[in-house]
User: Fold this.
Amino acid sequence: MASAATLAAATSSLLRRSSPLLLRRPHGLRISRDVAPRRIGGSKKQETRTRNLELPVPRSVRHIASSTNEESAARAAAETADTGGPTIFDKIIAKQIPSNIVYEDEKVLAFRDINPQAPVHVLVIPKLRDGLTGLDKAEPRHAEILGQLLYAAKVVAEKEGVADGFRVVINNGEEGCQSVYHLHVHVLGGRQMKWPPG
Ligand code: AMP
Assistant:
């Protein structure tokens, strides 16, 4: 697991490359200055005042932080992946917790991702998981629901006005950065996608 120290080292190395002035603090600058000496008890005392100047974190650093979070979430989720226990998506299906639903039919539910990676970022999930913690668990009997998920992804893209350019992603397993073990399709759009993906 990437420790805070690893992240701090990566951040500091990036900042070092972008500006040698920022060596001293990962997200800011420490400015010290000597002020006029004061006479205390017969002797002059030199005083140094220090203040911290907070600087915005560069986008490249934010990207590292965000990727590291996703990877740690994926590692943590992988530990309980195959227990088949309920996930946060079961609560969304049961409407026990709120979600922003974009599309729903008998078999699938589509709702906005809580941590959007594009102007349009919708998750499409089967209402009945039927063993599909991830795509790697797919069996021939799942062919129908897999087709329904992809069809729903297209319906969502149309509803969201991005049908002429969008991306469909399924993260699978720890290395695939999967963090919720209830099969889901990400529908992303509303910006120019890059290739290869990270
Ligand atoms: P993955 O990393 O492919 O397993 O995707 C799981 C997605 O679920 C992530 O993009 C999360 O942001 C999203 N997510 C987790 N909890 C919620 C929630 N309560 N409502 C909406 N999206 C969620």
